[in-house]
Amino acid sequence: MSVPLNRFRGALLGALMGDCIGALFEGESSLSSTSVRAVLENLDKGGKPKVLTYTDDTAMTRSMVQSFLENKEFDAKDLADRFTKEYFSDPGRGYGAGVTQVFEKLYSGEYSDIFTPAKEQFNGKGSYGNGAAMRAMAIPLAFPNIADVIEYAKTSGKLTHASSLGYNGAVLQALAVHYALQGESRDSFLSKLLDHMDEIEADEKSKSDAVELELGEFPYRKRLEKIKEFLDKRCVSREDVVDQLGNGVAALESVPTAIYSFLRCMDPVEDLPKEFNILQRTLGYCFLLGGDTDTIATMAGAIAGAYHGDVQVPNEWKLRSESYEDAEKWAEELHQMYTSRLPS
Ligand code: R7I
Ligand code: MG
Ligand code: MG
Ligand code: MG
């Protein structure tokens, strides 16, 4: 199904603003709504800083987008090269503590298999961090076919995150952006994601990784069920969201939280300015949750931006997000690539 350009712009700009603004709050555990509102009001009034820099989340998404646009195909080796080159040219973007070892090993030239460094992380268990998920939005913007989305999210995730908790989180985030682009209704969006995770988490590695971490089988599906339960209740506190879905650096503690934030914020949120539109509300809600705010907001921003389109991108927030012009240009190019790959 063809998708309008404004959704591609919305996705890339929503993700960029979530990262740039979310980085102001990253790691705070209990943020008061007053302090979040004060920061956002200052932005709206044109206060400092004039430019909000993006972090590793956007740096890696940029590498993915550039790889797809230049190669017109998915190329894992090219992605590994770009991630590594980007890290060494600009290492201070706030990368996860473990993933930099992957880049060093890839750079060393001592590994003939580009997936081996990721497998050696965390004593051979592989990382379950959210670094594969935070960049996965680029895939559904370039490739409309659902089987491609799943395969490429998994393969690109495995370049840095060999734990199934890491790469399955990337698959879930990529699927969420895919269905948001299609404008699925809230119920059908969630039930499609549930059906997919039922299959995706059914393989032996997904089961054994989850059991070993004492999560029980189908950890993502269980969190999606929790989201459904939360949405059915009239009133769920942010403390309960953080407690049950998480706000941490693990993919399992952040991808479902981003999806919940998107769905939750279709309804009004107390503690945020009434004049906020739904995209602003979604990002603001992610900031209020605290924890890994840049990453949760970048993922929720990608989903909400894909769904609501760029009409909801606030100019004040956009103009101070570093390199927003690239996001606008790449949205057009990705839209063309996506459209050209639709079955005729
Ligand atoms: O996942 P990753 O790329 O980090 C992304 C996060 C985002 O919040 C960014 O904004 C940036 O701030 O970092 O990097 P990794 O180093 O692979 O994983 C992130 C962290 O998750 C690690 O540094 C660990 O603290 C934790 N972690 C694990 N801890 C124990 N055992 C990930 N996997 C494991 C594990 O297997
Ligand atoms: Mg970051
Ligand atoms: Mg960080
Ligand atoms: Mg982060």
Low-confidence sequence ranges: none
Q: Write the CATH architecture name.
A: Orthogonal Bundle
Q: Please give the domain count.
A: 1
CA radius of gyration is 18 Å
Mean pLDDT equals 97
CATH class: Mainly Alpha
Q: Count of DSSP E strands?
A: 0
Small ligands present: inosine diphosphate ribose, magnesium ion
Measured between the Cα atoms of the first and last residue, the distance is: 10 Å
**Broad shape:** globular
The CATH homologous superfamily is called ADP-ribosylation/Crystallin J1
User: Which structural category fits the helices and strands?
Assistant: mainly alpha
The arrangement of helices and strands along the chain is HHHHHHHHHHHHHHHHHHH
Major pleated sheet: none
CATH topology, which one?
ADP-ribosylglycohydrolase fold
GO molecular function: metal ion binding; poly(ADP-ribose) glycohydrolase activity
Family: Belongs to the ADP-ribosylglycohydrolase family.
Pfam family, one: ADP_ribosyl_GH
Organism: Aquarana catesbeiana
Structural notes for this entry:
The chain is mainly α and 344 residues long. It has one domain (5-44, 54-341): ADP-ribosylation/Crystallin J1 (ADP-ribosylglycohydrolase fold, Orthogonal Bundle). The chain has helices at residues 5-22, 33-44, 56-71, 76-89, 99-108, 116-119, 121-124, 138-142, 146-158, 164-181, 186-200, 204-212, 219-232, 238-244, 255-264, 278-289, 293-308, 315-319, 324-340. The chain starts with a helix and ends with a helix. The mean pLDDT is 97. The protein binds inosine diphosphate ribose and magnesium ion (3 copies). One magnesium ion binds at residues 26, 292, 294-295.
